[in-house]
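Colleagues,

Please find the record for the two-part complex below.
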Amino acid sequence: MPRPPPIGGGRGARAASRPRRNRVMRTLNAMLEHAIAAVAAALLAGFTVIILIDVVCRYLLHIAVPWAAELTVLLFQWTIFLGSPLALRRGVHFGLGLVVPKYWPRSDRWVRGFVGAVVVGASGLLFVLAIEMSQRTWHSAYPTLPLSHGVVNIGIAIAAFLMILFGLEQLYRVFERLPEEPKK
Amino acid sequence: MIAVLCLAFAVLLCLSVPIAFAMLTATALAMAVGGSLPYALIAQRVGAGVENFTYLAIPLFILAGVIMEHSGISTRLVALARALVGHIRGGMGQVVIVSEIFFSGISGASLSDASAIGSLMYPTLKQSGYEPGRAVAIIAAACAMGILIPPCLTMVVLGALAGVSVAALFVAGFLPGLLMALALMVFVYVQARRGVLPGGLEKASWRETWQAFKGSILALMLPVIIFGGILGGVFSPTEAAAVAVLYALVIALFVYRELTWKSLYKLFVDTAVITGAIGLILGAATGFTSILALEGAPTAVGNLVSSVSTNPIVFMIAANLIFIFFGAILDGIPALLLFIPILMPVASSLGIDPLHFTLVSVASLGVGLVIPPIGIMLLVICSITQTPLAVVARAMLPYLVILGACLLFIIAVPTVVLVLPRAVGL
C-alpha cells in the first residue's frame, strides 16, 4: 500500500524540502559561478591585451608604459583568485584523488565530508587573515598605480569567501547523500 | 615544526584533500605548534607567491595552445608528420612521436598535448593494427618527451622559482627532447622490425608532403615567432606568450575559421580555471616552503646528502628519483614547488650547473607523469582512449626503460643540455 503524502511538518516534509533547498543552492551557486567566470575571462583577456600594448609601445612606438607590468601582475593575481573558487566548484584542483575510499569504499562519504571540512576551514582561515592583511596594507600604494596593495588581499578574501560557499555546497551534498556535481 | 608540517601535509594528501588546501592547512598547523611565526604570513605569501611577471606566461601559453588545438591545427600537424615519417617502419608510432614534437612546439601545456594527441591518434593507431596497450604506451611516452620541447609551463614555473633564465631553459630543452624522441623512434623501429608493431605506411609523394607542409606552415610559424622574439631580444618569454595568443587567435578566427566566439569564451574561462588551480598551489607552496627554509630544511638535506655521497651524479640521480616519484603523485608542478627550494641549494653547493639541474628535473617530471598507475598524464590518456590501465602498464615498461636511459644520459652528459644555451649566449 503506498504511503500517504506527508502533511504538515515531520521528517517527510523535511525530506521533501531537501531537493528544493538543494535546487536553490545549486541555482544560486551556478549563477555566481557564471558571473565569476565572465569576470575571470575578462581579466585574462585584459592582461593579455595590456602585455601586447606594452610590447607594441616599447618596440614600435618607443614609448615606455611604466604601469603595464604592475597592472598585468595585479590582473593575473585576481584571475587566480577568481579562478581558484571556480576550480573548486568544478573539481579540478590538483590532488591525489580518493585514495582511501578506493581501498576502503565504505569510508567514501566520511572522506568527502572531511575534505569538504578542511577546504571550508582553510578557506575560512584564509578569509580572516586576508581581511587582516588588507587592513595592514591599505595605506601602502603601488609605485605606478593609483591603487593600494590591499587590493590584492581583498582579492584573496573574496576568493576565500567564494571557496567557503562552494565548499559548504560540497559538504551539503555529502551529508544529504546527493551525487557529486559533475565535472565540467 | 618541520615534522608537523610534513606529517600534516602527507596525511591530508592521503585523505584526498586538494594539494593547495593541504599546504595551507599544514602550514597553519605547523605555525600553531611552532608559535613563533605570525599567521598573517599565510595570506601574505598566497598573494606574494604569484606576484611575479614571469608566471603570467602560464595562462598565456595554456591559452595559445588550446586555441591552436581547437582551430583544427591538430589534424594539419598530424598530416605533416605522416608525410614526413609515416613510411618508416612502425609508421603510425613514428607519426605520434613527430606529431608530439610539433604539438609541444606550439603548446606549453603537456596535459592538453596529451589529450589532443590521445584523442586524435589513438583511433588511427588502432586502425593501423596497434594493440590498445601499445598504442597508449607510445602516446604516453611521446607526451613524456614532449615536456622538454619548449614552450613549456613547467619550465616557466621552474625558471621563476629557481632564478634560472626561462629563455635559457627553453633553448636547453631542445636537444635532450630531440634525443629522447630519436631514442623512442629507434625503439619503435626495432619493435616494428621484430613484428611486435605494424610496419610503415605508404610513402608520401613530394606533392603530398608539400601540401601537408603548406597546410601547417602557419602553425609551424608560432615557435619561430616565439623563439625568434625571445632570442632576438624583442620580448621576454611572458611577452612571447602573449604574442603567441594573438597569433593563435588571428589564425583560428580569421584564417582557419574553425573557432567560434562562443567556444573562444569557453577556452578563456577554462584557462582561467586552470590558472586558478595552479596559482593557488603556487601561493600556498610559497608559505609552505618558507617554513621549510626558515627551519633550515635545505641545510639539513644538504648535510644528509653530503654524509651519503658528494658525487654530483649520485645526487642528481637521487634528486631525479624524488622528482619522478613525487611528480607522479603530485601531478608535476607541485613536486617542483616543494623540492626545488630544498634541493637547488644542495645542487649548487655540489657544483652542479643550475640550468642542468633544472632541466633534468623537468625531464624527470615528464617521466613521472606517465608512471603507472598514478601518473596523471597516463591516466588522462587512458581515460580519453578508454583503455584499462592494467592493459597499458605492461606495454609501458619498455618505454619507461628508454626514457629512463635517456634521463641517465642527460644527467651524465651536461653538455647535451648546456651546449645550445651557451651557443646563443644565454
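The helical segments of chain A are 10-59, 68-90, 99-103, 108-137, 150-175.

Comments are welcome before we finalize the supplementary table.
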